[in-house]
Specification:
Blueprint: H1 22-26, H2 52-60, H3 65-89, H4 93-222, H5 240-243, H6 247-257
Length: about 260
């Protein structure tokens, strides 16, 4: 920094352009990078244009010399402190370019990794889908075969059951016919017995009637004859004189009335 009375120092020459070797060390991945390498030309950091003598002259026109010198020194110290802080904490254009280049390289590597992972996942999913499709086709064929076999077995069971039912009905028909024949024979025997009983009863009734008639005839023949009947009595006619009341009867009626 020049003194207040000395002329300002000339600015330093621009810095020589440098490449970025940090990326060469950090890019250790084998994946291809899509970021092109380039060289960054950044000038060397120079002090800000602060002319102490001119600043002191301007302050001296307003303040006394001692105060102007103190203000100039305080301003210079503050400016130096801020410049040092900026140098310690700030980033240069070269650092920003390096960070941007590294960020782009990391993004490219991440993109390549994600693309590779996506392709691998897609291939895995496609393989699993193909295996599942083959398994489904195999299960479909097996299920159709099982259904066909089951239908055949069910049809065989139905036919066997139909034959068994037919045989059972035939046996029942034979048993019913045998029972019917036995019933017919039994009914014929009962009818014969009933006819025999009827004829026996008829013979007995005819014999009883004949015996009763014979007994009646014999009794009538053996009964004594009754005497001849007496002649009938002829009634006498009644006259009006017989119907007229007598005097005694009239008196009796009068007494009864009184």
């Amino acid at each position: 920094m020049p003194s207040p009375g000395s002329p300002p120092s000339p600015p330093p020459p621009p810095a020589i352009p440098k490449s970025i070797p940090e990326f060469e060390r950090s890019n250790s991945s084998n994946l291809p990078s899509t970021v092109q390498r380039h060289e960054v030309y950044t000038p060397a950091y120079s002090h800000p244009p602060f002319h102490t003598h001119a600043f002191f002259k301007v302050l001296e026109g307003t303040f006394p010399t001692s105060i102007a010198r103190s203000l100039m020194r305080a301003t210079r110290a503050l400016l130096v402190d801020r410049i040092g802080k900026v140098r310690r904490e700030g980033l240069t254009h070269k650092d920003l370019d390096n960070q941007a280049y590294l960020f782009r390289a990391a993004l490219s590597e991440l993109r390549s990794g994600m693309t590779l992972n996506t392709k691998n996942d897609s291939a895995t999913v496609q393989s699993a889908t193909t295996a599942l499709r083959r398994e489904v086709d195999r299960l479909d064929v097996k299920m159709k075969e099982d259904i066909t076999t089951l239908k055949h077995e069910i049809q065989i069971d139905l036919d066997n059951r139909k034959n068994e039912v037919k045989d059972e009905f035939a046996r029942k028909d034979i048993i019913i016919e045998e029972l019917l024949n036995k019933s017919i024979v039994s009914i014929s025997d009962l009818r014969t017995d009933v006819e025999e009983v009827k004829w026996d009863n008829m013979r007995r009734a005819v014999g009883g009637l004949f015996t009763f008639a014979t007994a009646v005839v014999i009794g009538m023949e053996l009964r004594p004859k009754p005497p001849p009947p007496s002649p009938p009595v002829v009634p006498t006619p009644i006259t009006r004189a017989d119907l007229a009341p007598t005097t005694a009867d009239a008196l009796e009626k009068m007494e009864w009335v009184t």
